[in-house]
Amino acid sequence: MQTPDEVITIVSGLPRSGTSMMMKILEAGGMRPLTDNIRQADVDNPKGYYELERVKKISHDSAWLPAARGTVFKMVSTLLVKLPPAYTYRIIFMRRPMDEILASQSKMLERLGKPSGPDDGQMTALFNRHLAEIQVWLAKQPNMRVHYVHYGDVIQSPQKVMADLCAFLERPLDAARMAAIVDPELYRNRA
To answer: Whole domain around residue 147: which residue ranges?
Structure first.
């Protein structure tokens, strides 16, 4: 049985699903986030992105993973399959209604002056297929435990969500401080 300090904790999900919010919550609870602060807070994520550039290169650079034990980092769900099987992971997987994800992503791309890409119908099909595939894959991984968290539940029932997170992570986190981080004003793209 591994202790929480031997486990690698990851916050994952689709882009714009609430992963940065969850990172902020876990930091408030007492977990140390792995982030390089290269991507700074902006209007789309006013409380920060909590990203680590090395995560994007996991398929050919995992030398940093041993130092990630006992911490938490953010990883987009498409990269989870690249994680080396030699480690034990606890994954907090953020879920959010697809229309909210797409609306948030569209607004962010517009503000950045970037093209929006495929239409919402195509993106919905691609994302839904990915989510179904990754959920099946995760369920088959003996070194990974997954806890699914719905964005709306964080906003509506933060105390319950935090209690569930503390139980899943088996860490002495400050659930009250975690719940206090939740800012309903940032729930701007509702279904």
So the answer is: 4-186
Number of other CB atoms surrounding residue 152 within 10 Å: 16
The verdict on residue 71 lying in a domain is yes
pLDDT digits (tens, 9 = 90+) for 98-108: 888 888 776 66
CATH no. for residue 67? 3.40.50.300
Q: How does DSSP assign 23-43, residue by residue?
A: HHHHHHHTPEE-----S---S
Give the residue from 20, 95, 90 showing the smallest Cα distance to 50.
20
Residues 6 or more apart in contact with residue 131 via CB below 8 angstroms: 14, 77
Nearest C-alpha neighbor of 9 from the set 141, 165, 142? 165
- Asked whether 24 and 177 are in contact (CB, 8 A), the reply is no
pLDDT, tens digit (0-9, with 9 covering 90-100), for 124-177? 889 899 999 999 999 999 999 999 999 999 999 999 999 999 999 999 899 999
Closest by CA to 140, choosing from 96, 87, 86, 85, is 85
From 80, 123, 115, select the one nearest 98 (Cα to Cα). 123
